[in-house]
Specification:
The chain is of the alpha/beta class. The chain has a single domain (about 5-255), classed as TIM Barrel (Alpha-Beta Barrel), CATH 3.20.20.70. It contains 13 helices and eight strands. An eight-stranded parallel β-barrel has the order 1-2-3-4-5-6-7-8, surrounded by five helices. Helix 6 (about 110-125) crosses helix 8. The longest helix is centred in the last third of the chain and has 18 residues, at about 185-205. The two termini are about 15 Å apart. Bound molecules: glyceraldehyde-3-phosphate. Glyceraldehyde-3-phosphate binds near residues 217 and 239.
Length: about 260
């Protein structure tokens, strides 16, 4: 484990309405103590319709839980039905936004150019991107996971200046491990997370690469998080299913106790 502050982020995906979101965040807030926030940054990524409610709760009770969105439009405003813009998310004080999640890539055809535009949109509005990258099963079976994932990193960071890139979070999520119960081994996670950090050093500088937090995502649970977090280039986790269970998510935040 590195000296970078780990980021444990719960990606709720399309789960929990705004009332359930309030109850869930209240439960997290009740369970988490100052020492948890000192050791780990904790964030939730609810559906768009929940964000205002989460913001009101976090602001009102001065909670230390960060929150963000699961997607952002590449456009600031205009005729883009169904999209939500950077200025809108910034107005709700979103700290983070997931970009290029494999479900966005798979179901909405998001490619590197789209991810690149969204990364730029997030930075433009002061929101930290959590750039999601990772290979599918066929690519893994062919042994091309590193090449594939680094091409996604290269594409999304095209023309992103160092002063922005140094704050990005990159989530390595092998698609075959998402929601399947198939977790990559800690060595699998380290192989690709380490390669991502080396690529950041090539694209920018070693100093910058050493600052960037690289998460692992894919069937993370309290029972496997400690071994994954023990890897030198893994600085947190992007958690899907297990983040919907407040008790389990708190255990993941407290990975050092597992
Ligand atoms: O964004 C989270 C990932 O897709 C992981 O989801 P999962 O923990 O349910 O496998």
């Amino acid at each position: 484990m590195s000296s970078r502050t780990p980021l444990m982020a719960g990606n709720w995906k399309m789960n929990l309405n705004h009332l359930e979101a309030i109850a869930h965040v209240q439960k997290l807030a009740f369970a988490l103590a100052d020492k948890d926030y000192e050791a780990v940054e904790v964030a939730v990524l609810p559906p768009f319709t929940d964000i205002r409610s989460v913001q009101t709760l976090v602001d009102g009770d001065k909670l230390k839980i960060k929150y963000g969105a699961q997607d952002i439009s590449a456009h600031d405003s205009g005729a883009f039905t169904g999209e939500v813009s950077g200025p809108m998310l910034a107005k709700l004080k979103c700290a983070y936004v997931a970009i290029g999640h494999s479900e966005r890539r798979q179901y909405h055809g998001e490619d590197e150019a789209v991810c690149n535009a969204k990364v730029k949109a997030a930075f433009k509005h002061g929101i930290t991107p959590i750039l999601c990258v990772g290979e599918g099963l066929d690519v893994r079976k062919a042994g091309n996971q590193v090449t594939h994932t680094l091409a996604q990193v290269d594409g999304a960071l095209q023309d992103v200046p160092a002063e922005q890139a140094e704050t990005i979070v990159i989530a390595y999520e092998p698609v075959w491990a998402i929601g399947t119960g198939e977790v990559a081994t800690p060595e699998d996670a380290q192989e690709v997370c380490g390669a991502i950090r080396r690529r950041l050093a090539e694209l920018y500088s070693q100093e910058l690469a050493d600052k960037v937090r690289i998460q692992y995502g894919g069937s993370v649970k309290s029972g496997n998080v400690a071994a994954i977090m023990a890897q030198p280039d893994v600085d947190g986790a992007l958690i899907g299913g297990a983040a919907l269970d407040a008790d389990e998510f708190v255990k993941i935040v407290r990975f050092r106790d597992q």
